Amino acid sequence: MKLIAAKSILKANDQLAVENRQRFDAAGVFCVNMVGSPGCGKTTLLEALFSHLRGSLRLAVIEGDIAGSIDAERMEALGVPVVQINTEGACHLDANMTASAVAQLDLTDVDLLIIENVGNLVCTAGFDLGEHLRIVVLGATEGDDKAVKYPAIFQGSNALVISKTDMLPYTNFSIPRITADMKRLAPDAPVFQVAALKREGTPKLAEWIAEEKTKR
Amino acid sequence: MHELAIVEALIEQVGTELDRAEQKGAVKRLEIAVGRLSGVHCDSLRFAFNLLSPGTIAEGAELSIREPSAISRCRQCGTSTEITEMVIDCPLCGSPEIAIEKGRELLLESIDIED
Ligand SMILES: Nc1nc2c(ncn2[C@@H]2O[C@H](COP(=O)(O)OP(=O)(O)OP(=O)(O)O)[C@@H](O)[C@H]2O)c(=O)[nH]1
Ligand SMILES: [Mg+2]
Ligand SMILES: [Zn+2]
């Protein structure tokens, strides 16, 4: 006999993600999943966002890395509550890992939870963590063809952040090209340009995140 | 790596479906859909399935993979076209004003069970 299933292969993950989202909503926590390739500038961006938002929102961070706790230590140094997940080889976070990390946070002390996903443009695309927003970060040194080459991650994101824009003069990266590609894949997603080390463009992104939070 | 996680989830999902339908027969065939823009590689998926399925409920099952295309919808001429890879312009009128939809599916479509 033939059993018709017609369900997502990742249904178990998707269900857990729904539960995570319900937990966040019940606690009034707004959750952002930050994805991008290794070294695209996610942690530097987190540091900048924290400096802009600290007066108005209580931030907590979940750091997803294959190994080590370097990024978690960077956030801890700023006094941000942080939970490190080591995926031990896995190339992405999933909703189950997220749930265990969230269990270690006191959500009553948190307004904004940012999850720094494992550096990867492919594998992070399929796994809903229960976030409200997914932001994809792309470095100006990584090439403006990445949306075409890795469409899934861009298609499923709510915003594109082009990072390291101070490097633009040294590359052939075309902002109009990546913006046009993003528009095809995610018509409603805004595109931000930041140079997080210099805190350029980051206040605008922080403002947008805070504004999105008020919409939930 | 990623394909391994997907196959693990797939096998788990097959178990859930069989339990729900109270079926105990051997699984002969699985039909799944893997969208062309999903970023999931079908050969790696087959490889992972051969690696992980022995000793599970899916042991010996044939894995049949459908690869649904993405749809490009033109904002100028309104045409919807199936695309198998990212295109830059509308294949019909050449307008760059297109929206790309679908193509990210990862679905367990059906399970054939021995009677
Ligand atoms: N020029 C320039 N370099 C930057 C900028 N932001 C980050 N970097 C550099 O890029 C490198 C990687 O930055 P991280 O913030 O650690 O990147 P990441 O995405 O968190 O890296 P992983 O977590 O390892 O994937 C560091 O050497 C940063 O100093 C920027 O705005 N401009
Ligand atoms: Mg980092
Ligand atoms: Zn057209």
Question: Shape of chain B, please?
Answer: elongated
Structural class of chain B: alpha+beta
Question: How many helical stretches of chain A?
Answer: 8
Query: What is the overall shape of chain A?
Result: globular
- State the end-to-end distance of chain A: 45 Å
The percentage of residues in β strands of chain A lies in: 15-25%
Question: Within the CATH hierarchy, at the fold level, what is the topology of one domain in chain B?
Answer: hypothetical protein PF0899 fold
CATH superfamily label of chain A: P-loop containing nucleotide triphosphate hydrolases
Strand order of the largest sheet of chain A: 4-3-5-2-6-7-8
- The order of strands across the largest sheet of chain B is 2-1-6
What is the count of helical runs of chain B? 2
Radius of gyration of chain B: 18 Å
Largest sheet of chain A: 7 strands, parallel
Task: Report how far apart the termini of chain B are.
Answer: 35 Å
In total, the number of domains of chain A comes to 1
Radius of gyration of chain A: 17 Å
Overall mean confidence score, pLDDT of chain A: 96
Q: Given the helix and strand composition of chain A, which structural class is it? A: alpha/beta
